[in-house]
Design a protein that fits this description.
The chain is mainly α and 111 residues long. The protein is 63% helix and 5% strand. It has 4 helices and 2 strands. A two-stranded antiparallel sheet has the order 1-2. α1 packs antiparallel against α2. About 7% of the residues have low confidence.
């Protein structure tokens, strides 16, 4: 096994064990089973990454990234409900159904 593969194996093992704590073993192992060539023991140790470890790691990241937004929304929902509509979007959040400055200027010219 190459040095890079050993590093990936250690990093993935650490990450999987953290995911087991955060998400629980059922969700974590459900997501892991969707990743081809990744073999993990019941205690979260990576046993095999397959012939192309970089592809396995990339697929791992993609698989767990899919959970991020729904998980954050779910955990933040009680807080968002408590503060109600007073929350304004930050610049990184898209503002839905609000015309752009150019659209507003065009409307003013037409008026």
């Amino acid at each position: 096994m190459s040095d890079a593969a050993q590093l990936y194996q250690k990093l993935l093992t650490d990450t999987i064990r953290k995911q087991i704590i955060i998400l629980g073993p059922q969700i974590t192992f459900l997501k892991i089973h969707n990743i081809p060539n990744l073999a993990v023991t019941n205690d979260g140790v990576v046993a095999s990454l397959g012939a192309k470890p970089e592809e396995t790691v990339t697929r791992f990241i993609e698989e767990f990234r899919e959970l991020s937004a729904p998980l954050v929304r779910k955990t933040m929902q009680p807080l968002l409900n408590a503060i109600g509509p007073s929350v304004t979007p930050t610049p990184s959040q898209p503002q839905v159904n609000q015309p752009s400055q150019t659209q507003q200027q065009n409307q003013e010219i037409k008026s």
